[in-house]
C-alpha cells in the first residue's frame, strides 16, 4: 500500500470533514500518500483529484459539509461507469480507497471491491439507516439541529395554542424523527416504519384538549407523507388548523457535534488502519462503543432496527 484515495459521496453529513482529516493524517502518519477525490464517484470518473497534505486538512475539523464536496453519480450505477472508475484509480496509482457516505455509496464501493480495488467504507449519513454500526456520522448533529429548531417552534406553539407539524428528513427510516421527537416532547412521531392512524391522532388531540392542553407537536418523517398532506388530512379529523414547518436541508448543515466529531475521527483513522491491516471490502462502525470492522454489504443486507422502547416513550411521555 503506497497511495490511498478518499472521497465523500451521497448526501453530505456534518462530521465528514473530520473523517477526511482523520483518514489523511492517519495515512500520512503511516507513511502513505493521500489523494482527495472531489464530488464522489462523479469526480472519480472525471479524474478530479487533489493531493491531500497535513496542512490541506487543517482547520476543517469543526466545519460542516465536506471540503471534497459530494455528488450523486447516476453513471456510476452502470457497469461501464464502475469499470471506468477502476481504470481511473489504476491510472493514478491509487492502491486503495476510503469511501465516506451512506449505503448507496457503499454499494458503489462494493462494486469496486468486486473488481479488485481495495476499499473500506466509513458510514456518513444523517439518516442513521445503516446496519453494521450503532450510529452513522452526522446523525447526532442533525438531531441536535432539528431539536434546536423545534424547541423554538414549541415556544410559539404554546403561546398561540397551535398545532405544529414539523417535517424532518427520513425517506425510508424514522431514526431522526424518533430521536428528535422524544427529545422535544412531541405528542406524535410519525415514521415510515409504522402505519399512520389519523383517527387515533385526532382522538388523542381531542382528549388532550379536554384536559386543557392547548397545543401539540407532531414530528413527521418525510417518507410518511408531506407535512402539507398530513395537515390537510388532519383538518378533517380535528378542529386545529395545523401550521407546518419543513426543516429540509437545514438538518444537514452546521458544525458537527462533539459526538460526531469524535466518531468521525475514530472511524476515519480506523478505516486507514483496516487497509494497512490488509482488510478489504469492509466498513468500519461503532458498536457498543467498540470500533468494529464488518463486510461492506452489512450496511444494506442487515437490518438496523429502531428502538421500540423509544416508540413507547413517545406514547408514555406525551399523555
Ligand atoms: P445518503 O443516505 O446520505 O443519501 P447514500 O450514499 O446512500 O447517502 P445515494 O444517493 O444512495 O446516497 O448513493 C450515492 C452514490 O453512490 C450514487 O449517486 C451512485 O453514484 C453510487 N451508488 C449508489 N448505489 C449504487 C449501486 N448499486 N452501484 C453502484 N453505485 C451506486
TrEMBL record:
The active site is at residue 127. It is an enzyme of class 2 (transferase). Its main location: cytoplasm. Its EC number is 2.7.1.11. Residues 3-275 form the Phosphofructokinase domain. Substrate binds at residues 125-127, 162, 169-171, 222, 243, 249-252. Allosterically activated by ADP and other diphosphonucleosides, and allosterically inhibited by phosphoenolpyruvate. It catalyses: beta-D-fructose 6-phosphate + ATP = beta-D-fructose 1,6-bisphosphate + ADP + H(+). One of its GO terms (biological process) is canonical glycolysis. Belongs to the phosphofructokinase type A (PFKA) family. ATP-dependent PFK group I subfamily. Prokaryotic clade 'B1' sub-subfamily. Homotetramer. This is ATP-dependent 6-phosphofructokinase. It comes from Cloacibacillus porcorum. The gene is pfkA.
Amino acid at each position: 500500500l503506497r497511495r490511498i484515495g478518499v472521497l465523500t459521496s451521497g448526501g453530505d453529513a456534518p462530521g465528514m470533514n473530520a473523517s477526511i482529516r482523520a483518514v489523511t493524517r492517519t495515512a500520512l502518519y503511516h507513511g502513505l500518500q493521500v489523494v482527495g477525490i472531489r464530488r464522489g464517484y462523479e469526480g472519480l470518473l472525471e479524474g478530479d483529484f487533489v493531493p491531500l497534505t497535513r496542512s490541506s486538512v487543517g482547520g476543517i475539523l469543526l466545519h460542516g459539509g465536506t471540503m471534497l464536496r459530494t455528488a450523486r453519480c447516476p453513471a456510476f450505477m452502470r457497469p461501464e461507469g464502475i469499470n471506468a472508475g477502476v481504470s481511473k484509480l489504476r491510472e493514478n496509482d491509487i492502491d486503495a480507497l476510503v469511501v465516506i457516505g451512506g449505503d448507496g455509496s457503499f454499494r458503489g464501493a462494493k462494486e469496486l471491491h468486486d473488481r479488485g480495488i481495495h476499499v473500506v467504507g466509513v458510514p456518513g449519513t444523517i439518516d442513521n439507516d445503516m446496519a453494521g454500526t450503532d450510529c452513522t456520522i452526522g446523525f447526532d448533529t442533525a438531531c441536535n439541529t432539528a431539536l434546536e429548531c423545534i424547541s423554538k417552534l414549541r415556544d410559539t406553539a404554546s403561546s398561540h395554542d397551535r398545532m405544529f407539524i414539523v417535517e424532518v428528513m427520513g425517506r425510508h427510516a424514522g431514526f431522526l424523527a424518533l430521536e428528535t421527537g422524544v427529545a422535544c416532547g412531541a405528542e406524535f412521531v410519525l415514521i415510515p416504519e409504522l402505519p399512520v392512524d389519523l383517527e387515533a391522532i385526532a382522538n388523542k388531540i381531542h382528549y388532550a384538549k379536554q384536559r386543557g392542553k392547548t397545543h401539540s407537536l407532531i414530528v413527521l418523517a418525510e417518507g410518511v407523507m408531506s407535512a402539507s398532506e398530513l395537515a390537510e388530512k388532519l383538518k378533517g379529523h380535528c378542529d386545529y388548523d395545523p401550521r407546518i414547518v419543513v426543516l429540509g436541508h437545514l438538518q444537514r448543515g452546521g458544525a458537527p457535534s462533539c459526538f460526531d466529531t469524535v466518531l468521525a475521527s475514530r472511524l476515519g483513522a480506523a478505516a486507514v488502519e483496516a487497509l494497512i491491516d490488509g482488510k478489504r471490502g469492509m466498513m468500519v462502525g461503532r458498536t457498543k462503543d467498540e470500533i468494529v470492522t464488518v463486510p461492506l454489504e452489512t450496511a444494506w443486507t442487515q437490518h438496523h432496527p429502531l428502538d421500540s422502547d423509544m416508540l413507547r416513550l413517545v406514547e408514555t411521555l406525551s399523555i
